[in-house]
Amino acid sequence: MKILFGTGNLAKVEQMKKIIKLNNFDVDIVSLKDINFNEEIIEDGKTFEENSEIKARAIKSFCDKNNLNPKVILTDDSGLCVDKLNGEPGVYTARYAGENATQMENITKLLENMKQYEKIEDRTCKFITVLTAILSNGEKLVARGECRGIISKNIGKLGGLTYAPVFIPIGFDKPMSDMEEEEFRKVHNHRDIAMNKIVQELKKRNI
């Protein structure tokens, strides 16, 4: 059985394969590159749930037009939500400082907006992932995963998730980007949590 994962990002595909393996779920993951999907998807939803479904519906439409019938189409929308900023950057996580903004530009804007909040208890936030799965029979499954933390005043190692250099998971004293892979895997779990829920639902349906 194959799951069509709605991304061309090979790092995301590899991460999803690891989550699937940990769940003892015997499926193959294919990406949008494998089906030559190059269409632009306008993500104009107001929530992670809406954007995740927008992607899933666009990919399903492409599959229908090209006589492709994957058992499961899986898409995600993820982002950082800061409590004191009323949930910003939220669905604008990747473009908080503008379209095509760099990682450093997005982080700089975030830290500037957080300057007035000095106390740790005022710098709380969470990473969120929402996964949408559309099954071949048209059924839709939705799952949400969250990972809580605080916004650091200092910037860690750049790279990886946009805000990982300033996201300190609860119970730790350093940004996510400064963690070793094994340590990182234990806390970078918002996508893992959401996917675990999806896998359990798929297993119930013997997919």
Give me a quick take on this structure:
This protein is of the alpha/beta class. Helices cover 31% and strands 22% of the residues.
CATH architecture label name: Alpha-Beta Complex
Order of helices and strands: EHEHEHEEEHH
- Number of β-strand runs: 6
Backbone shape: globular
* Fraction of residues in β-strands: 15-25%
* Radius of gyration (Å): 18 Å
State mean pLDDT (0 to 100 scale): 93
Strand order of the largest sheet: 2-1-3-4-5-6
Please state the oligomeric state of the protein chains shown.
single chain
- Helix content bin: 25-40%
The largest sheet, given as strand count, sense and whether it forms a barrel, is: 6 strands, mixed
Determine the N-to-C terminus distance. 8 Å
The secondary-structure class comes to alpha/beta
CATH topology: Maf protein
Top-tier CATH class: Alpha Beta
Total domain units: 1
Tally the helices. 5
Low-confidence stretches: none
How would you characterize this protein structure?
- With 207 residues, the protein is of the alpha/beta class.
- The protein has one domain: Alpha-Beta Complex (Maf protein), CATH 3.90.950.10.
- It has a six-stranded mixed sheet, with helices on both faces.
- It has five helices and six strands; from the N terminus they run βαβαβαβββαα.
